[in-house]
């Protein structure tokens, strides 16, 4: 992550570390104790000339931040993230970019200083639900349903927002498709949403 001359190797390494640390305090402690580790290395990749590197850098930061206020604070103290870094992806014609960026702005919304937290979250949630409605690509539908599942147990208010923009009906419809990856991801998202008292009462 630190010493490779290849940006893609650096960002993939950062993303891998972030995913390994999710929900695992021992791994996160070991990473943090490394003298070479610093979020500045990942934050710099947000400004790469390579769009994929920038997208994956956002993914790495989102992984480290996921349900971890301590790491969010460290990222903020290292320089933080700016909303304008995500705008090209949020407005991209590439659905893969849009889906990933939407997830990232929801997870990182607390530490995006140039955009209100509620606005960032609402923007990301609406984009994900819109993709469920608009996309014809099974891989994108599965990815988007997975992103919704993950954000639905990050903090209070997210499930209610997904419900308010029609996410339940769209996820229920995906349960009927032949692609098992899509229907499985939709089922997981609905499972998390079912913990919300409003969602559990919505008929399929």
Automatic annotation (TrEMBL):
Gene3D superfamilies according to UniProt: Leucine-rich Repeat Variant
Stored InterPro entries: ANKAR, ARM-like, ARM-type_fold, Armadillo
PANTHER family (UniProt xref): ANK_REP_REGION DOMAIN-CONTAINING PROTEIN (PTHR46464), ANKYRIN AND ARMADILLO REPEAT-CONTAINING PROTEIN (PTHR46464:SF2)
Protein name (Swiss-Prot/TrEMBL): Putative ankyrin and armadillo repeat-containing protein isoform X2
Organism: Stichopus japonicus (Sea cucumber)
